[in-house]
Write a structure and sequence with these properties.
By secondary structure, this protein is of the alpha+beta class. The protein folds into 2 domains: about 50 residues; about 60 residues, Ybab, Chain: A (2-Layer Sandwich), CATH 3.30.1310. The chain is built from 3 helices and 3 strands. It has a 3-stranded antiparallel β-sheet with strand order 1-2-3. A hairpin with a 4-residue loop joins strand 1 and strand 2. Helix 2 runs antiparallel to helix 3.
């Protein structure tokens, strides 16, 4: 029982120290700056997501006989192919080419998304708050 009381007393003292640090003027200023940075980053990320959603990405397969177009949201907009792709003796080939074209368009979209959205987490200045 005495050991529990000692542990509880330590926890209360540590909690008071943390609360005092959080309410110090310097910490409040740092927290305010951190919140402003987070809000600005959120606005920039939303703008980048909206811009990505408006873009279209194209993928081709079979030397261009199949073309797929996707939006930045991942929505498949169209698949066009030349009639030469429709071989009645090999119907799987048309499906394989469509899949390849769609995958290429999706990969292009992913690369663009990573380049436009990937840097947001690393851009935040924590101002020494983590150590």
């Amino acid at each position: 029982m005495d050991r529990r009381r000692t542990t509880t007393t330590r926890l209360i003292r540590n909690s008071k120290s943390v609360l005092c640090a959080l309410y110090s003027p310097g910490m409040q200023k740092d927290m305010h700056q951190l919140m402003q940075q987070a809000q600005q980053m959120q606005r920039e990320m939303m703008a980048a997501q909206e811009a990505l959603a408006q873009k279209t990405f194209e993928g081709t397969a079979g030397g261009g006989v199949v073309k797929a177009v996707v939006k930045g949201t991942g929505e498949l907009l169209s698949v066009d192919f030349e009639s030469s792709v429709l071989d009645p003796d090999d119907p799987e080939m048309a499906g394989d080419l469509v899949v390849a074209a769609v995958n290429q368009a999706m990969a292009a979209m992913s690369v663009d998304a990573e380049s436009s959205l990937g840097g947001f987490a690393g851009g935040m200045d924590l101002g020494g708050m983590l150590g």
